[in-house]
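CORE FACILITY INTAKE
Project code: CF-77B
Contact: R.S. (postdoc)
Sample description: multi-component assembly, two entities in total
Requested service: structural model of the whole complex
Turnaround: standard
Below are the sequence entries exactly as provided by the requester. Do not edit them.
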Amino acid sequence: MGENVAIVGVGHTKFGVRNDVNMPELAWEAIKQALLDAGLEQKDIEYVVVSNAGGWSSEPLPAVVIAEYSGLAPKGTVRVEAACASGSAAVKLAHDIVASGHVDIAMAVGIEKMNESPTPTVVEFIGRAGNYFWEFHNFGLTFPGYYALYATAYMSKYGATEEDLCKVAVKSHYYGARNPKAQFQKEITVEKCMASRYIAWPLKLFDCSPITDGATAVIVANEKVAKQLTDTPVWIAGIGHATGTSNLSKRTTFTSLEAGTLAAELAYKKAGIDMDDPTKVIDVAEVHDCFTIAEILAYEDLRFAKRGEGVKLVREEQTYIGGKIPVNLSGGLKAKGHPIGATGEGMIAELTNQLKNRVEKDRQAPIKNGYALAHNIGGTGHYAYITILSLSKPRG
Amino acid sequence: MTEISDWRKRIERYRFQGSECVKCGARYYPSRIKCIKCGSEEMRDVELPRRGRVVSYTVIYNPPKKFSKYAPYAVALIELVDGTRVLGQLTDVDFDKIRVGMEVEATFRKLYEYGEDGHIVYGTKFRPVVS
């Protein structure tokens, strides 16, 4: 089990097209915020885990470039990859290094500069994020195409419609419009979404998360250090993780992500949360809405709704503030943006701020029980990481 | 870049050949040298049945560069009559008429060509069964 681990500082840059800065400059924006938030200096950080999917941003050793520029060197560092869940994997590793007693304070830094390459190159790279040879290379299946297969299966089985999917995007943009760090800060309508062009039927442009630059940082510490630094540490109450098959054809269902479901069960068990209705204790969640269908699958995989009823939460607007459980009050991947390797720490930074009641008022969830959940998926359910945060100390 | 892997896997594509576990009967496409279900390493080549049904599908409008001249095209997950699930493009089909559960059959087709020499790769696509 190891020691209790708390989040003591977070940083989150403006997401979007960040051609104004290079990779280490962008990372430093987030690192500086996290250090200030924690009241720490670079020399206090004993290990740095950098999450970056890379490929499009030309730096093959991002961890070293960032460590030097930010003054974190000569402390140890590593770069991790779990596709779009790289950030949550980095937080898990930083957590484990502290929980094991190896160091007192560690940092997870997420960074992605997707706009360093032209859009077709980025689309090409993302499309390979499955089983390269048997899906992308032979049959021309793309990343939106993978999720489109889930959308078609879900719509066919449960009667969900393209309008239902668009309602998810409308909510994301509603909250994105209230988040100054979001890539898209403009509300949209169902009609506007429905009128957008098809990318991979039934998914349209407005069903898809954008190409984003961004950096995020999370500093974690053991109980002793956390108590010295802050009166309101946000504890990591449980982390669940699982892996799905590389080939989609090896999967048994296309109306849920098996890895997401399994990771949720593990996380709930570790955090001691009743799996019959987790919405009773979780005040707010960030879920992986790389495509609108993914948010609906997440509701069900996380047991916020029964199988086939995730779409009802959308229709009844139960995931806005005031509903059954507020989800993606940041704007989500869809509107806040999805800088692949920075998304996980971004979710955890957002939820830390939510639990501390310090986000913009019109998108602040009411904090009653002090629990928040980050659901971060890599690829099409290839990697799944679920992190549960709590204002109450896990044990001891 | 992938001419070698295209060549290495040509038989699987040309013959629509997978592998079958001699011990538990599990079938795989692409083939495996060890059964993931029972752990057996006794595998044999098997030609897969050519009929099946669409489990799910999409139509790609925003293709990778290599497939740009073929777009839009439909890609489907197909469950063959023996239960093996495979991925492949649908061909000779009206997009509006594709349905989950639609009966399809395998057909030998050009998958794509690429590179300066127009390197052609053949394999299996699926078309609706005419009843």
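Facility notes:
- DSSP finds two helices and eight strands in chain B.
- Residues 49-131 of chain B form a domain with the OB fold (Dihydrolipoamide Acetyltransferase, E2P) fold (CATH 2.40.50.840).
Invoice: internal transfer
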